Amino acid sequence: MKKALICGVSGQDGAYLARFLLSRGYDVYGTSRDAQMSSFSNLKVLGIRDQVKVESTSLNDFRSVFQVLTKVKPDEVYNLAGQSSVGLSFEQPVETLESIAGGALNLLEAIRLLGHPIRLYNAGSSECFGDTGEARADENTPFRPRSPYGVAKAAAIWEVANYREAYGLFACSGILFNHESPVRPERFVTKKIAAAAGRIARGSKEKLRLGNLSIRRDWGWAPEYVEAMWAMLQQGKPEDFVIATGETHSLEEFVAESFSCAGLNWRDHVETDPELLRPADIPVSKANPAKAEKALGWQARSKMHDVVKLMMQSQK
To answer: Is the per-residue pLDDT at 40 higher than 80?
Structure first.
């Protein structure tokens, strides 16, 4: 039985990854800053809370990281922890950098010092690429991040590459484009849209306030993306991969489709709020996931229209 440690198990990706690894017979451990106080609500929603062993660990604290690795002795570590909101990163840039880049560095250094054959997956982000215009970003596209979150994720990816090359660690990063699910908190725009459309369909008189509706993103389904994370750690050598659907749609399309699923015309219920505009945003985000399809045999099964339907089904 393989043993996996998921840092950030209480988040969207951590919960779905835990469920996936359990289905493959793994012994699954998860970390939280305070495991005794955390609700692990996403694990409960997925019906797996009793199957995941939890440990209190702060990735910002090297001693804490070293201790949990020594105690659990995992075969695989999945680093999904850290501040997860692009918007919030503009308000909390220092915490964002420390939790993402500092946390990744502590994991890498602890694994190096332990000397155990641990395989590490690190969660990257399409935000690292910044504005690539109409070009489809792949593993060789330069990083030009436009948010504190993107800067932190880019730093973590370069840390992983450095430790892989300098010390021979089996460490890789998944550069994931947007991926959604019902367990997203409402600070994420897709869940905000789905939840509001659901409430309005049930009689709410509220208006949904959004920022820039013209931005275009590649939206996929989170439960599928965690399969790619696992596949990366099963390869003969560690490599980074772009994970995406390969299709890009505007936020306006996402909104229109969501309200249409609820039998509504979105224009009657949505307002643009200038205060929700970010200091710097990426107008278009396009991906080329060909390497993942060829090397991992992974391909997104759910595209934007499928994602919207799945999100709206959870609101009924």
So the answer is: yes
